Amino acid sequence: MNDLNQHLFDERKGEEEWYDQGSVIWCDFDPAKGHEQKKRRPAIIVSNRAFYLLTHLVKVVVISSSEAQKNFPINVSLPSDMQTRGYVLTDQERSIDPSQRHVALVERCPEKTLDQILEFVLMTYER
Q: What family does this chain come from, according to its entry (predicted)?
């Protein structure tokens, strides 16, 4: 399948890559409302580069270090070989403007773990 946004990649090659899908970032989530995750915490970018180039936003799911999140059925445990520890809350997806959220790249999520995360995120869009 051809990527309809390939021209965007070609034009922007070599620029920052922190917004790539699977990047683990630190991000300031305040202000937050209700049950939304708050404060500065790690998150994983689940949107692709084309989404960022078109919107200047990234979609992220937050990571919690709370053991209370361990057994929630759609949370994903990060592997022990990652620097970042905790549980990916796939039900806590949100779009953010990284230029306003003090984003910093930490590391890349392994492909196998990213696949699990995306599987749960995509389930929320099924009809």
A: Belongs to the PemK/MazF family.
